[in-house]
Amino acid sequence: MTSESNQDAIIIGCGFAGIYSTYVLHNKLNYKTRTFEMSDQPGGVWNWNRYPGARVDHMSKEYCFKFDENLYNEWNWSEIYSPQPELKAYAEHLLRRYNLRPHIQFSSRLANAKWDEENSRWSAEFVVTKPDGTIEEQKWTGRHLILATGCLSAPNKPKFAGLEDYVAAGGKVYHTGEWPREGVDFTGQKVAIIGTGSSGVQSTPEIAAQASSLHVFQRTPVYTAPAYNRKVTDAERDEYRKRLHELVAATMQQPGGFAAHLDGITPPTMSADFNGNKEKIMQRFEDCWKSGGFAFYGSFIDLILSPDCAKLATEFYHNKIKSLVKDPKTAENLCPDYPPGCKRMCVDTNYYVTYNLPHVHLVAGLKERPLKVVGGKDKFIELEDGSKYGPFDAIVLATGFDAMTGTLAKINITGRNGITLKDAWAAGPVNYLGLFIHGFPNMYHLAGPGSPSVLTMMIHQIEQQVEWIEEALKKMDAKGLKTIEATEEAQNGWVGFSNMAASMTLLNSCNSWYLGANVPGKPRVFMPFVPGMVAYRQKCNEVLEKDFEGLITA
Ligand code: N01
């Protein structure tokens, strides 16, 4: 091991969280840092999710970094909701613009990380794939370990019977989260999509436009709102730039960490303020639907709190779906029967109307009649009730991710006294502020469980956490402190508070990946921090103001 291998900080992941961490720790704090990325390219989720139709579901004027006004002003998003290639290009632009590439090592997978008590450092072992395809093992150490490993980066691939035989018989299988870099041409093919979350909803219309037939296999219908995506005009771009400060100020007031969707619609109130006037409540839903995207979330403050409000929202959605989808049975099958927001809402372009195309078929009810054989030698998909569909040339798994904890579960992380992260999280993820895990000093998990993360506009969360770490490290360095770690008491308090907050909402009332319910055997715990960004930021700031309250420093 060379002295070069000893860093102030080791950063894992080169998505937006890893990129911003590299910028802050290396460029601003002047730390010696090394960032490791499993892929040979940057971008995180925007590198892996290259499926047709992949695009951001927050407005691009907002889903981007705002820490540097020049950066904001010089980057031209072409559409209201940018497509994946543009987001990937933005990640590459960040590396160039801030000269970060020399500090990033690609094709490097973290296999083991162990806290070295004697030296108060993390010792990390990487499996590195060299350009000629050979594998090399490398050891690095770092005073701090930043896990910017993403929440939705470990693909969920259910073990479907028949899939192996299908591939052996020449059938093609694609997971949306591991899409081939060269793209896939479905022209003239008979295609099946399994899954109707965001990835399924975005890819369905695009694949339908190419395929000769498309069957969409749905276990649970989703709530999805129209994006009304289009090109951004130069005049609009100028206006965004002029109003950047206003946007940032408005964002700071929003629990969801986004404000752009709410621009132009009146701020949300409690549904009770409408005194039970159904007509007015439905009109409010209609106005939000017309604004597009996540504006529907901003319809009422109590949308995820009040069963009555949720019931009306569901009724609104059912009416909408039935007005858009011509075949009454298909429309009925697309209607969700759980509160909106309980599963993450989707934002789409032409999702519902795609089912009006004669070659597009919805196969619903997989809860009652699960998938029995997927593909097999004859390339059919068979359900438990004996019904059979196919044969298919290609099967697209839009089956999501082992969310929030799946990526870390693949790494052996050992903290103080030999405690492993697997053991610490055996009953579900626990931490303090979503950042610190008791027993794992100087380790920071970004945008993960215990923070608002996936319930918010993710870049806002990333900026807040990385800037908080920046302040914490500055403070530690000024005081000559070497380690920082959550107390067990603070961790228990945070977990208890998070669970209580989630239990007061309707978010626990359906099977979602927020709860780990999509992965068989995963502990059922509501993982994100429900109170949202405003409360979260306030608490994080308080911890610093109160001299690392809830944290042991030494
Ligand atoms: O995954 P999902 P996703 N048999 O878990 C079904 C972000 N994202 O990749 O709902 C049959 O939402 C499963 O059914 P059910 C965003 O945060 C953002 O679509 O569990 N079906 C569900 O329909 C999003 O929420 C964008 O009953 C099975 C689907 O597969 C998150 O990533 C775009 C099954 C999985 O849906 C995940 O989205 C894409 C089985 N055994 C993703 N197992 C943007 O727009 C699973 N399913 C920015």
Task: Please supply descriptive tags for the structure shown above.
monooxygenase activity; alpha/beta; single chain; FAD; 8-stranded mixed β-sheet; binds 3-acetylpyridine adenine dinucleotide; oxidoreductase; Cyclohexanone monooxygenase; FAD-binding_Monooxygenases; globular; 554 residues
| CATH uppermost class of the domain at 2-154 and 403-494 and 532-553 | Alpha Beta
Total number of helices:
17
Bound molecules: 3-acetylpyridine adenine dinucleotide
- CATH architecture field of the domain at 2-154 and 403-494 and 532-553: 3-Layer(bba) Sandwich
Helices and strands in order:
Blueprint: E1 6-12, H1 16-28, E2 33-36, H2 45-48, H3 69-74, H4 84-97, E3 104-105, E4 108-116, E5 121-129, E6 135-147, H5 163-168, E7 172-175, E8 190-194, H6 198-210, E9 213-217, E10 224-226, H7 234-242, H8 244-252, H9 278-291, H10 307-324, H11 328-334, E11 346-348, H12 351-354, E12 360-363, E13 371-375, E14 380-383, E15 388-389, E16 394-397, H13 406-409, E17 412-414, H14 421-424, E18 443-445, H15 458-479, E19 484-486, H16 488-503, H17 533-545, E20 551-553
Parallel strand pairs: 1-2, 1-6, 2-3, 4-17, 6-18, 7-16, 8-9, 8-16, 9-12, 10-11
Antiparallel strand pairs: 4-5, 5-6, 13-14, 14-15, 19-20
Helix pairs in contact: 1-15, 10-11, 15-17
3-acetylpyridine adenine dinucleotide binds next to helix 6.
